[in-house]
Q: What sequence folds into this?
């Protein structure tokens, strides 16, 4: 046997040992659970998947079968799912990646597993064309399948979690795409299903690949401040432990550290530094109730005991016990003032509530009566009613659909009461009109106002938790297009749009009849060329819009329209003569030929992506080629920012910050057009940056600010605006800088000025 054959044999033996060990670990985890044991079918699914994926390797080099085993392990260990889910997880890539079909799976494993595997089989992006979002369509299919079996989405989340854990082997452009989809779709879904632990890990992993430097920086600071937190925790919990021991409660106290992603979000949103975030540490009291049915009362007993030790914050008591969140989360949150002068949040939960908080709905099953249970007996499908309503009349566009789903599923909730005292759960920020549509489509479409806590309010009034709401209606009221601007729930938005679409179709039909009658009275017949001429004459791009305007009488046909059809209008504006130029957005109304040539020439300066372009390699932006890329206004990227490239419809490359909201959508919608981008700048060019200041006004403040910027740092101030009101001033400074480091140095220096309270960069 030669050396190569010997190496191949050794590698095969090592692979087999790794695969067998991983599967044995999965079986051991499954056997330790309270599920009804179905070892035979799990082993059968493993052997089938192993054979189907034989010889295939992942980018990391390990055998492909290790991925389905890992997904099944997450489903079993971290979600508490049973044999049906474990088999589906083991088989989830078989139909997509091999020659086996869903029918084959059904014949061997039965209809339930086949249905879940079918739901998990990804849609290939090509079906929808380049412009459609494969991910959003994929998500839509998932939700449709989920209406039959929620395990599809649970296993999909397990699949995504394992992909995120092994993302290091992917090229950078793929990392941004997958991290973007994860933050936009999967982390909020995990949150909505109550999978808190998984949601946090998905967010942190996405953050780690999108912003590696910031992630490492926060991790380092968390490690450096660990001793301070430990001291605060020990000092704070010692008297609590004494009180709980005295009460004879069986408990554990844990420190909850805010995740790096949550810390970073707070730093961005509040414009604060790491050192200014005071809620990094929270304390969790988890107890085993003496009587399971009395666990809510026992939570309040613990609260009473600890609020006698520390003073509680009156506005920060959160009762999720009597009104659990829609994802099943239950706990009592209270904020107490420690002896060291710091507010500390304490979360009080029973062991059951803790498992539900970490594992979601799957944990409910553990506390059912009886020795064993099967996952088919679960109540996981209760929350699907919202999705089913949206699916009744989904948005035509996939991204709109995804946004409307996100609106409902992932918002934080408020509780409002009907006049009869029934509790309704709604997303935070919703209006009286949202509530009307939540109750009934008829109520929503005829709503004229509401009484909130017995006071008359308009449709757009935003509701708060605890409000009692009575909807007022009138038969003469009809849905108005402006309503779309102040509803926030997906149900209300979809119902309004469906009614408006129906109304528009009726108005368009009326307009078509008006046109036909008018043409007949003038001895003319309707034809496409006549319709095109009239649309062009009235500056309408679509026939439907023209019919709509006729139907609602915003256009009245007359003599000039006859002249236009017969070509007699000599003084008509010269729109038609301009041809294609009329539709070029950057050329404006008064375009002469010189301007057209200049603009077209400028357009051609941009770098064009051809078929030989390697998306796996990063594009390097330097002083020589920076003019070849498009820098949209949405995020104003400058050297030093974490960036990526997006190949637009003209095959030009847009440069976005990775944290930009537009980029987040692009990553989740058009992942195959994302490329990695890096800076290679040498402080030669200048870029715009804006810094916002706030502070206590005093004589000479403006002079001190300009001295720091122009004098000490030799930076040009482009524009400065300052407002002062009753001793408080706020200002904006537009600067010319080389890169993000310049901005940081300027901000650090400004913070040293006496009286300046807040310094933040806004672009």
A:
């Amino acid at each position: 046997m030669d050396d190569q054959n010997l190496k191949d044999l050794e590698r095969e033996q090592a692979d087999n040992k790794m695969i067998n060990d991983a599967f044995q670990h999965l079986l051991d985890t499954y056997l330790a659970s309270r599920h009804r044991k179905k070892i035979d079918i799990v082993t059968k699914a493993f052997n089938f998947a192993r054979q189907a994926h034989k010889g295939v390797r992942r980018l990391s080099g390990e055998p492909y079968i290790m991925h389905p085993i890992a997904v099944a392990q997450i489903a079993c260990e971290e979600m508490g799912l049973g044999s049906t889910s474990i088999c589906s997880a083991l088989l989830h890539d078989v139909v997509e990646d091999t020659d086996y079909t869903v029918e084959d799976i059904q014949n061997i494993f039965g209809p339930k597993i086949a249905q879940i595997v079918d739901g998990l089989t990804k849609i290939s992006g090509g079906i929808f064309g380049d412009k459609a979002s494969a991910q959003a369509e994929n998500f839509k299919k998932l939700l449709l399948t989920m209406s039959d079996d929620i395990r599809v989405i649970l296993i999909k989340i397990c699949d995504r979690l394992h992909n995120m854990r092994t993302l290091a082997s992917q090229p950078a452009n793929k990392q941004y795409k997958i991290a973007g989809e994860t933050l936009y779709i999967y982390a909020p879904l995990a949150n909505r299903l109550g999978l808190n632990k998984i949601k946090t890990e998905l967010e942190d992993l996405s953050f780690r690949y999108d912003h590696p430097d910031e992630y490492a920086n926060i991790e380092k600071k968390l490690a450096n401040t660990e001793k301070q937190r430990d001291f605060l925790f020990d000092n704070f919990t010692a008297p609590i432990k004494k009180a709980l021991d005295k009460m004879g409660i069986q408990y554990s106290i844990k420190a909850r550290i805010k995740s790096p992603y949550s810390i970073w979000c707070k730093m961005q949103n509040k414009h604060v530094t790491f050192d200014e975030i005071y809620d990094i540490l929270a304390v969790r009291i988890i107890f085993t109730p003496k009587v399971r049915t009395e666990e809510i009362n026992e939570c309040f007993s613990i609260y009473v005991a600890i609020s006698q030790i520390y003073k509680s914050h009156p506005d920060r008591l959160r009762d999720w016990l009597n009104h659990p969140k829609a994802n099943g989360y239950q706990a009592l949150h209270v904020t107490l003032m420690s002896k060291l002068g710091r507010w500390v949040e304490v979360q009080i939960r029973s062991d059951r509530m803790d498992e539900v908080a970490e594992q979601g709905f799957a944990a409910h099953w553990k506390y059912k009566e009886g020795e064993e249970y099967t996952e088919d007996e679960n109540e996981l499908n209760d929350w699907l009613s919202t999705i089913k309503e949206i699916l009744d009349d989904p948005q035509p566009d996939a991204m709109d659909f995804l946004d409307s789903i996100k609106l409902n599923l992932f918002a934080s909730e408020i509780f409002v009461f009907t006049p009869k005292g029934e509790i309704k759960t709604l997303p935070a920020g919703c209006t009286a009109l949202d509530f009307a549509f939540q109750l009934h489509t008829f109520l929503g479409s005829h709503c004229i106002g509401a009484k909130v806590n017995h006071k008359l309010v308009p449709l757009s009034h935003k509701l708060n938790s605890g409000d009692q709401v009575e909807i007022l209606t009138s038969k003469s009221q009809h849905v108005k297009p402006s309503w779309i601007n102040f509803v926030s729930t997906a149900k209300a938005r979809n119902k309004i749009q469906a009614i408006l679409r129906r109304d528009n179709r009726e108005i368009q039909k009326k307009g078509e009849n008006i046109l036909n009658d008018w043409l007949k009275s003038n001895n003319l017949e309707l034809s496409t060329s006549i319709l095109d001429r009239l649309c062009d004459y009235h500056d309408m791009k679509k026939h439907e819009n023209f019919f709509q305007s006729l139907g609602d009488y915003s256009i009245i046909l007359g003599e000039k329209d006859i002249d236009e059809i017969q070509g007699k209008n000599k003084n008509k504006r010269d729109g038609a003569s301009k041809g294609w130029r009329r539709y070029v957005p950057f050329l404006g109304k008064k375009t002469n030929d010189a301007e057209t040539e200049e603009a077209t020439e400028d357009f051609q300066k941009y770098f064009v992506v051809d078929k030989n372009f390697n998306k796996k390699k990063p594009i390097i932006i330097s002083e020589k080629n920076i003019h070849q890329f498009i820098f949209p206004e949405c995020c104003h990227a400058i050297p030093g920012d974490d960036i990526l490239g997006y190949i637009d419809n003209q095959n030009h490359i847009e440069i976005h910050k990775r944290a930009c909201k537009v980029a987040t959508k692009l990553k989740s919608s058009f992942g195959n057009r994302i490329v990695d981008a890096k800076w290679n700048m040498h402080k030669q060019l200048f870029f715009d940056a804006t810094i916002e200041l706030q502070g206590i006004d005093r004589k000479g403040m403006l002079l001190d600010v300009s001295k720091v910027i122009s004098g000490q740092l030799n930076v040009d101030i482009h524009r400065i605006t300052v407002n002062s009101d009753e001793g408080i001033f706020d200002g904006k400074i537009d600067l010319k800088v080389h890169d993000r480091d310049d901005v940081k140095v300027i901000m650090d220096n400004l913070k040293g000025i006496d009286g300046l309270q807040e310094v933040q960069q806004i672009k």
User: Anything to note?
Assistant: The chain has five domains: 13-211, 219-366, 499-567, 619-679, 687-761.
